[in-house]
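Take a look at the protein record below with the fold in mind.
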Amino acid sequence: MENNDVKISKKKPIFPVTPALQKYLRLYQREAKLPITYNDLMQFNEAFPLMDKYGKDSLWEGPIYAQDLIEKLHSGLKEIYASLKASGNLRIVEHKYIDKIEYCTFGNTHPFRIRIVNRLNDVYDYFYIKKADASRIYGLEMEEILSPNQVNYLVDGDTLVEEHIAGIPGDVFTKGQLYTPEFNPTRIAKEFVKFNERCLIMLLGDMRAYNFVVQITPDFDDIQFRIRAIDFDQQFYEGNLKVYLPQFFKENLPYVKLSMEQLTEKTVLQYQQEERSSIVHRVRSERHRLTDLRDVSKKEELTTPENIARLKQSMADYFNDANYLYCKNMTDIIELNIKNIIRQVKL
């Protein structure tokens, strides 16, 4: 696996949620009427920087709200958590309270991170409230349909609510745990290869180490690993093919080196084929939902004509397949990716 540094030159614009996408979200129970919105949380005049445990700027801030607004926000946030976790059943928040509201100016959707705590046992959870961005929503849906992972989120107009995805941030994992003696390095390398393959097929970009987490699951005879995306802002926007291959980001170099140390070309091909087969199974079981998503996204303007032209030419060269040159949008490219792997699995 080759590694070159990849830079994303411009900040991606936020694309609005169209009526057609709203209809899709309603059909698949992703739409909700929320008691407070993203704009409600923006009603603060001051904020203080939050440091991490090493005393460095975490890029998150602590917003300061007027006293008469706090009660309304906390009550609404508890209702949102109940909608996200239990279809609105408020019994799950009877003994919970909002411990922290944190705001991040880094990234496209400027998220709020909410920490909610159970006062009976101090167990806590997080969830996020962000600006609704159509690109991100399509990324979440593609993750739900084509990856082995489930995502939980709700949309209300310009407000997006997302469940916290637990795991060790990819950059933190490389610094402290990548070469842990009891971890099987081949299993980690295998998962990175599969993640790399999945991102390209789904056109999920910018999977630098801090945009994914590593989940560790003890098994009866070994430890299993899974790499999960946590940032979906760069769903099929960029025209640079390398943006959709995590192996090309310098932040992921430790994973690339591990893969080169542990895997042969033959085993890399084997793991890529395993991931393609898994995607085919998921496509077959979710074909109606995938078709509905395709029909909506094909009509949307979610990138530039220049990016589409550049990417379809790169895909045609990468896969030696001239059919990519006839794609009219990013959805067509993903559809052709899926059709090609279905053909490969059948062979």
